[in-house]
Write a structure and sequence with these properties.
The chain is of the alpha+beta class. Helices cover 45% and strands 13% of the residues.
């Protein structure tokens, strides 16, 4: 009963806040009325918001339901119209739309893809969100507000967050004499377990180390062992270092000598092996969960093991951004929707339905969330989570054209030090455009 009353108070507060905001800001809002699909403000004061996103799968249906509920609750005041397209198409269309003042009122964008828009001023600084809405900044877990931040100021607000995790096959652990309920705690243990779990006679591998189509799992290895890739202050490569030489030599030994992972495999290949019970351990994101569940694999999930220096998991996700052409009146309505989205009720619904970890402390501590072993484990990232190559326009190229190619060369037996030096020089060339 108390929970129901609290929810009612939250809804009343949000509705009153929106009404006040729209009255105050409508006078200074220029109200776009373009027919190309961006937002508009009618003579009656109703705000129509256009919202671009890439949720083309089943999660898009849930998003549409949440938007519909919001529209119904704000009938006559605000209406959100969604335009859903593949993420790659969204990233292509958005720059043109912003430059021609036909951009949506707000957009959901993957963190790394937002970097160019943030760096060139195409997205608005939205640091006033908390003062404007009264939202509790302290309710966000460590690192959540770093997504899309520049010089300590937010240009994205979280919509969906994730880390990278270690998945393991419990039955394969049992068969190898390992505790099926205990993940390797260190990278050295990870190597020891991988060796024990590898059985060439069964075409069985202990650990998946892909070279393409994968989230940057290697950040856990590099940073965990005290290495880095780029110096944020000087925008120069730090890849060629004793720490990284040790890490990549360790990785080469695992693949070339101990043969714990198939050489040169893509993430799609290794995910299939994990689903079929041929792969014992693999680092991936929350999207791995339904794949393993569909294959009836009894699996465990944990943060990546700690290295010699620290424990690290890359924090990534999708955030809400507001293009520079969005009017003040529209922006006020966008803020209200984001505040609604980040209410405990909606954040919990999205997390449990989609299997992604919540980033609000109030949701992390929710009894229903805490009783879900998978979601609660993913949510409990503590101080281990952080961004990787954040704020670099060349981040995707560094990941895909340098680091993954480096791993591929190392797995094929190339000289580690020479490969590391060559990769570091390539990163420096890419970084010249950002200095």
């Amino acid at each position: 009963m108390l929970h129901h009353l609290r929810q009612q108070k939250v809804r009343i507060f949000l509705s009153m806040s929106l009404a006040i905001l729209l009255i105050v800001l409508s006078a200074c809002g220029n109200g776009k009325t373009d027919s190309s699909g961006n937002g508009s403000e009618s003579s009656s004061g109703k705000i129509t918001l256009s919202f671009w996103n890439g949720f083309t799968g089943p999660d898009g249906e849930l998003l549409q339901q949440i938007v519909n509920d919001y529209n119904e609750a704000n009938k006559g005041k605000v209406e959100i119209k969604m335009d859903v397209m593949p993420w790659a198409q969204l990233n292509q269309k958005l720059p043109v739309a912003i430059s021609t003042d036909t951009a949506p009122s707000f957009v959901a964008v993957i963190g790394g893809a937002a970097t160019p828009f943030i760096q060139n001023g195409s997205f608005q600084n939205i640091s006033d969100f908390f003062d404007t809405t009264g939202a509790n900044r302290d309710d966000y877990v460590n690192g959540a507000l770093e997504l899309g931040a520049k010089d300590g100021q937010p240009y994205l607000l979280p919509m969906q967050m994730n880390g990278l995790y270690l998945f393991w096959n419990k039955q394969m652990f049992k068969d190898a004499g390992l505790d099926p309920d205990k993940a390797p705690a260190t990278l050295q243990e990870l190597a020891d377990y991988a060796e024990k779990l590898t059985d060439p006679s069964k075409n069985q591998y202990g650990l998946g180390l892909p070279v393409s189509g994968v989230a940057p799992y290697y950040a856990s290895l590099i940073i965990g062992n005290g290495g880095s890739v780029v110096d944020d202050a000087t925008r120069t490569s730090t890849l060629y270092s004793p720490e990284n030489l040790e890490t990549f030599s360790w990785l080469q030994d695992l693949v070339v000598n101990k043969k714990v992972s198939p050489v040169g495999s893509s993430s799609a290949d290794l995910e299939k092996m994990m689903q079929s019970g041929q792969m014992a351990m693999y680092m991936n994101g929350p999207w791995m969960v339904p794949a393993l569940q569909s294959g009836s694999i009894d699996f465990g999930i944990a943060l990546p093991p700690a290295g010699s220096a620290t424990q690290f998991t890359q924090l990534d996700g999708i955030g809400f951004g507001v293009p520079k052409g969005t009017s003040e009146a529209e922006k006020a309505a966008v803020y209200d929707f984001i505040n609604y989205w980040n209410s405990p009720e909606i954040a919990k619904k999205w997390s449990i339905s989609n299997g992604f970890p919540p980033y609000l402390k109030s949701v992390v501590e929710d009894p229903e969330v805490k009783s879900n072993p998978i979601i609660s484990t993913m949510a409990d990232m503590g101080d281990a989570a952080g961004p990787f190559l954040q704020g670099l326009i060349s981040a995707d190229r560094i990941n895909n054209e340098v680091l993954l190619l480096l791993i591929e060369a190392v797995e094929n037996g190339a000289n580690v030090e020479e490969s590391l030096k060559k990769a570091s020089d390539t990163i420096d060339e890419l970084l010249k455009s950002e200095q």
